[in-house]
Amino acid sequence: MKIEICATSLQSVINAQNAGADRIELCENYLIGGVTPKLDFLRSCIKTSNIPINVLIRPRGGKFIFSDDEFNLMINSIYKFKEYNINGFVIGFHDQNKNLDDQLLKEFRKITKGYELVFHRAFDYLKNQEKSLEMLIHNKFDRILCSGSISNSVEGIKRLIYLKVLSKNKISIMPGGGINVKNFNLFKSSNFSEIHLSAIEKKISLDSNYNIIKEIVEMSKQ
Fold first, then answer.
1. Which of 12, 113, 194, 196 has the smallest number of Cβ neighbours within 10 A?
2. Predicted confidence band of residue 123 (pLDDT cuts 50, 70, 90)
3. Cα–Cα dist 22/52, whole Å
4. Domains in the chain and their CATH numbers?
């Protein structure tokens, strides 16, 4: 099982790679759900990291309904970040009716050709997830990060398993949201191939915790 860490600081990147994580989702401003990282921060993380980095492309927090100007910002960010040694991009959006726009999916896949492309937890808000799943497969997305339409992926486990079966291994369903040491084995025993977590203890620090990541990595290999 691959372990992906949502990292919002350089120390989080260091802790993730030293603890044996497989991949980083890089963003900033954890408390509003993550936004596109600044270029200087990305550069520092690339210099530091020896594991793949996927970059979140999200111009602001809040709802996943974006204006044309915001979509242009997202596209410009992708072109800018393609100049650096990154592994992929993480995007997500929907329209006013909580549906996906196939043309937008095509456009984002076209400009990210050769990179991993992940659709993030905006998926949890989509009205017709079965149709949306097929659209993401058709547009050659690599992965869907979701929690089963509930903020906590433990509570959404049945939906996550349903989506995994529905995907027929044509796209990876990666659970994220509320995953920790105590509930990790639920996802392992459900045969998910990868999980996503921040490993943050907010009362202590907003850095991803080395010990939490290390324990989950060790559990994943048992």
1. 113
2. very high
3. 7
4. 2-220 (3.20.20.380)
